[in-house]
What we know:
By secondary structure, the protein is of the alpha/beta class. It is built from 8 helices and 7 strands; from the N terminus they run ααβαβαββαβαααββ.
Amino acid sequence: MNDYDRDTLFASPQAALGEFKFDSRVAQVFDDMVSRSVPHYRETQQVTTLLAARLVQPNTVVYDLGCSTGTTILGLATALKRAAVTIVGLDQSAEMLEKAAEKLAQLKDDPSLPPIRLEQRNLSEHRLENASVVILNYTLQFIRPAARQALLTQIYQALVPGGALILSEKLKSENPQLDRLMVEIYHNFKSSQGYSALEISQKREALENVLIPFSAEENIELLRASGFSTMEMALRWFNFATFIAIK
């Protein structure tokens, strides 16, 4: 069996579905879960790495906020070989960081790679500084809506001039008809990845009050209100998108 098992967390009927949590059960299957649940996940990783490699500045910090099991950091470390930067991964789940540490252990013998730190932190309580790139991939959607503006403002203030935020989010549509269409297409995608109707339904219920998506327009307004004036959507698949915003 692989270190990261196949995601079957919602395969059996559950009488009482609690809120979705990034606990040890999720950490064990997370890599399989995210690759089968997020359309074009690999392409999102590639876009993130390409943008970060172009926009990173020497003697700064690259932050991955909500770094989960360290997949993005693994790609960043390779892309930023011999760059004079430090990579910092933050996550409030100790179980996810444990898996990240296992994954990143393969890099320890390569002196050309930048130093990497993993820290267990509540993102709203951690002060960022001297950042040239901040990555927020599928993390903001788990932050309470009332707290998102403060986090984005803190990110903007921590970025050096020319620094960049890379933001990936699940989206909702402002139009109810189009929103239903995009959700239906997304559920068909999950079905094509081997998830049953029961798994899709139960996971959606568990995430209902935990993952709260904004529209593309709402995310752009948050970025503007945080101080960003240069921004663009770099990648989109129906109700999933990656944005780039530069200070």
